[in-house]
Each structure stands twice: as structure tokens, then as C-alpha cells.
């Protein structure tokens, strides 16, 4: 690694870390983990990787704070004023970081793995945007399986506005890829379908797993049904799903599904030309 690249990485990662901490997008441990993942991505995938990751963190951070009071009122806002911690970063970044490492290990498949990396980010970006934009809707969401109306923030709840949010994030990611990334290793007609499919599939997988497997608890102090295992300072009673599968585990599965879809679309493209 040249010393100029090393300097660039240090400057960019420190600037982004200070910004996401100061703008209260991430807390201290969240910032430290994000900086480590960012460093890995910079060293492996390079500038494209870090640009796409930054677009996700910044845009998702802005939309989390949009209409925050209204989201709080329906009891579905991200806790701590939208400030996210290391568990959020791990849930959203683990698969992308793994794809970034595999990217350098298998250079002969770089297009497919890069597509998997982009798909992993597309999925969690879309899922976050679907939630944050979907919560702005006045009507309650419906469960993805069974279509019953549920309270906003219920795992498995979906809405048309939410899916439009997912599509919107895909458009932002493709635009960032085309306009901010200098030389594009993947052609637009591959990136477009890969990102859009990874976004829609990832959001859907997140809702299905969220509804079927995610642990849901009843707080024995206030009676609220929540996806948080502790509420009012005490352990809640598990009433549905599995303790091991929380919101962060669901995010990892969502991101993995996006990676698989992204990589598969590129693989199909290369095997048919
Ligand atoms: Zn409670």
C-alpha cells in the first residue's frame, strides 16, 4: 500500500467518523466499529466500497430523524433519538465486510463478489428506508403474511409507502454508483437490476423473518408488546419467536439475502454472454 493511499484512508475514515459521531448518527462504539469496517472496505473494495457505504449511513441517518416526533408518538421510532450503536452497525455491516474480504481473496470472481457487496448494502439500506419512510404513513401497516393490520413498528408489518422507500434507496444507490464512482467495474445494466432486486428481496426477507422468527416480548411492568428483550429496566416475557433472533440478527439475514441476489444477477449475466 502506498503512503498516499494510507493517508487518504486515514483522512477519509476519520472525517466520516467525526461527522457520524457529531451528527449523532452513531454512538461512540458504533462509530469505532463503523470506522473499522470502513477501513477494511477501503483496503479491499476501495473507493467504490466506501462511497456506497457512506451514502447508506448518511441517507438512512437523515431519514431516521425525519418525522421523529411522529414516529415516537406511535411508539415505533428508533430508540435514543435515532442514535445507533455497535449492534446496529454489526447487523447492517457484517455481511458487507465479509464480502469485502472475500473480494480480495478471489480476484478472479471480482465482479460477482462486488455485486454481492453492493447487494448486501442495498438490502439493509432498503430495509432501513422502508421502515423509516413507511412509518410516515398515516394508516397502520399490514403483516406481510396474512395481511392483517398491525401497529406501526411490528416486525413483519409492510406498507406501500415502505416499499416505495425501498425503491427510492435503490435509485439513490445506483445513482451514487454511476455518478460518484469514477471508473465503473460493473456496467449500469447489471448494477441497476442487481441493486433493485437486492433491495426488494432484502426488504421482503426482513419482513418475513421478522414476522415468523423474531423474538417478541411482553413487558411485565407496563404490558407493552415489544421486540426489545428488556423494557422498563427488566427482562420481558417471550411470547413469540426465538430469543436468539432479534432485530440485528434479522438485519444480517436481510443483508445476506441481498448479497446472494446481487451476486446471482451478475453471475447470470456473465454466464449468458
Ligand atoms: Zn415496559
Blueprint (SSEs and pairs):
Blueprint: H1 3-22, H2 28-44, H3 47-65, H4 68-73, H5 86-105, H6 110-134, E1 142-143, E2 157-158, H7 160-180, H8 188-212, E3 216-218, E4 225-226, E5 230-231, E6 234-235, E7 237-240, H9 247-272
Antiparallel strand pairs: 1-2, 3-4, 3-7, 5-6
Helix pairs in contact: 1-2, 2-3, 2-5, 3-6, 3-7, 5-6, 5-9, 6-7, 6-8, 6-9, 7-8, 8-9
The site of zinc ion has 6 residues, from loops.
Shape: globular
The total count of strands amounts to: 7
Approximate strand percentage: 5-15%
- Largest beta-sheet details: 3 strands, antiparallel
Stretches where pLDDT is under 50 for at least 5 consecutive residues are none
Biggest sheet: strand arrangement: 4-3-7
Number of individual domains: 1
CA-based gyration radius:
19 Å
**Helicity level, as a percent range?**
55-70%
- The assigned structural class equals mainly alpha
Number of helices: 9
- Distance between the amino and carboxyl termini: 35 Å
Bound ligands: zinc ion
**Can you write the helix and strand succession as a string?**
HHHHHHEEHHEEEEEH
The overall pLDDT average reads: 92
Amino acid at each position: 500500500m502506498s503512503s498516499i493511499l494510507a493517508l487518504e484512508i486515514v483522512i477519509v475514515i476519520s472525517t466520516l467518523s467525526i461527522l457520524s459521531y457529531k451528527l449523532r448518527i452513531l454512538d461512540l462504539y458504533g462509530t469505532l466499529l463503523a470506522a473499522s469496517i470502513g477501513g477494511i472496505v477501503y483496503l479491499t473494495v476501495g473507493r467504490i466500497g466506501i462511497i456506497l457505504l457512506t451514502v447508506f449511513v448518511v441517507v438512512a441517518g437523515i431519514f431516521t430523524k425525519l418525522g421523529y416526533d411522529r414516529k415516537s408518538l406511535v411508539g415505533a421510532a428508533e430508540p435514543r433519538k435515532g442514535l445507533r450503536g455497535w449492534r446496529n452497525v454489526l447487523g447492517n455491516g457484517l455481511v458487507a465486510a465479509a464480502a469485502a474480504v472475500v473480494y480480495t481473496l478471489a480476484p478472479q470472481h471480482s465482479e460477482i463478489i462486488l455485486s454481492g457487496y453492493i447487494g448486501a448494502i442495498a438490502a439493509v439500506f432498503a430495509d432501513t428506508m422502508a421502515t423509516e419512510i413507511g412509518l410516515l404513513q398515516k394508516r397502520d401497516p399490514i403483516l406481510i403474511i396474512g395481511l392483517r393490520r398491525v401497529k406501526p413498528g411490528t416486525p413483519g408489518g409492510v406498507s406501500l409507502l415502505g416499499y416505495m422507500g425501498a425503491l427510492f434507496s435503490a435509485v439513490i444507490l445506483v445513482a451514487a454508483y454511476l455518478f460518484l464512482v469514477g471508473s465503473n467495474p460493473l456496467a449500469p445494466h447489471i448494477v441497476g437490476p442487481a441493486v433493485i432486486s437486492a433491495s426488494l428481496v432484502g426488504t421482503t426477507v426482513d419482513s418475513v423473518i421478522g414476522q415468523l422468527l423474531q423474538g417478541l416480548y411482553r413487558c411485565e411492568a407496563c404490558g407493552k408488546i415489544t421486540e426489545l428483550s428488556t423494557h422498563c429496566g427488566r427482562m420481558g416475557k417471550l411470547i413469540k419467536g426465538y430469543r436468539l433472533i432479534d432485530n440485528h440478527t434479522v438485519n444480517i439475514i436481510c443483508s445476506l439475502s441481498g448479497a446472494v441476489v446481487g451476486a446471482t444477477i451478475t453471475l447470470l449475466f456473465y454466464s449468458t454472454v
